[in-house]
């Protein structure tokens, strides 16, 4: 079986768009970056085009650190498993089982989303039921305290004022799923112990209606997690 089919197709698509050599196009893709647009010339005053968002969720180096495999290896595995064109949830579950994580964990979503975008199936963060964004922070706080800050309504009101989260499932202190208000979106929280009184919390907000709302939600959760860190650390910044 020919290997790197999907990845090679991705590289060649970029080559056709940019005129780069195979080596140059591959290097840019694996770095998960787009070159800055050239500055406007004195002759042509039209604004430079905004670079497209990288297809791959992160660099080859980082995905290898987080999962033990690089992008080309992941694409080979997914191709050989027949995951091209499968539903997002099915692909995410397959990747998650291989990694030993939950399907909504960042590594599983990063691999799945990148593979889908490379095959031309979806925009960044887009899934069958809408857009999904995530935000993470590492805290010098015991996992139980972080978990309780989400599931305890009184504690939550201190840093998520006015936000209604209705619990669907919860496994203390590891994960909790919520319906958010009446807007049809869902919030999934995972807390991963890092040893001692340290943990990483990841919030995934799904079923968002469009890319603009997804961008706003991502920024909002990043800001809220900064507030949470301050409160749990004793600083208690304004909510």
Q: Can you describe what's shown?
A:
The protein folds into two domains: 5-34 and 53-126, no CATH class; 129-232, Alpha-D-Glucose-1,6-Bisphosphate, Chain A, domain 4 (2-Layer Sandwich). With 239 residues, it is of the alpha+beta class. The chain is elongated. Mean pLDDT is 84; it is low at 35-51. It has helices at 5-18, 22-31, 60-67, 71-80, 88-99, 106-118, 143-151, 153-157, 211-232, and strands spanning 126-127, 130-139, 165-171, 175-180, 185-193, 199-208. Strand 1 and strand 2 (130-139) form a beta hairpin. The longest helix has 22 residues, at 211-232. It is built from nine helices and six strands. The chain has a six-stranded antiparallel sheet, with helices on one face. Helix 1 crosses helix 2 and helix 5 (88-99) crosses helix 6. The protein starts with a helix and ends in a 7-residue tail after the last helix.
Characteristic terms for this protein:
239 residues, alpha+beta, Alpha-D-Glucose-1,6-Bisphosphate, Chain A, domain 4, 9 helices, elongated
Walk me through the topology.
Layout: H1 5-18, H2 22-31, H3 60-67, H4 71-80, H5 88-99, H6 106-118, E1 126-127, E2 130-139, H7 143-151, H8 153-157, E3 165-171, E4 175-180, E5 185-193, E6 199-208, H9 211-232
Gist?
Helices cover 43% and strands 18% of the residues. The protein has 9 helices and 6 strands, in the order ααααααββααββββα. The protein has helices spanning 5-18, 22-31, 60-67, 71-80, 88-99, 106-118, 143-151, 153-157, 211-232; strands at 126-127, 130-139, 165-171, 175-180, 185-193, 199-208.
């Amino acid at each position: 079986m020919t290997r790197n089919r999907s990845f090679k197709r991705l590289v060649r698509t970029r080559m056709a768009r940019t005129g780069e050599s195979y080596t140059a196009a591959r290097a840019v893709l694996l770095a998960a970056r787009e070159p800055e647009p050239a500055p406007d010339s004195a002759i042509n005053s039209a604004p430079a085009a905004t670079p497209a968002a990288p297809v791959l969720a992160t660099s080859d180096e980082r995905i290898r650190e987080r999962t033990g495999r690089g992008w080309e290896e992941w694409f080979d595995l997914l191709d050989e498993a027949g995951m091209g064109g499968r539903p997002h949830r099915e692909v995410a579950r397959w990747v998650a089982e291989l990694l030993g994580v939950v399907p909504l964990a960042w590594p599983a979503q990063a691999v799945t989303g990148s593979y889908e975008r490379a095959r031309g199936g979806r925009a960044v963060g887009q899934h069958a039921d809408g857009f999904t964004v995530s935000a993470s922070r590492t805290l010098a706080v015991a996992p139980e305290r972080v978990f309780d800050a989400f599931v305890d309504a009184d504690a939550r009101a201190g840093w998520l004022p006015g936000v209604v989260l209705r619990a669907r499932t919860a496994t203390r202190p590891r994960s909790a799923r919520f319906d958010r208000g009446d807007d049809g979106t869902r919030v999934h929280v995972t807390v991963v112990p890092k040893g001692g009184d340290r943990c990483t919390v990841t919030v995934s907000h799904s079923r968002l209606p469009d890319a603009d709302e997804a961008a706003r939600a991502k920024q909002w959760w990043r800001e809220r997690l900064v507030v949470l860190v301050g409160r749990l650390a004793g600083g208690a910044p304004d909510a």
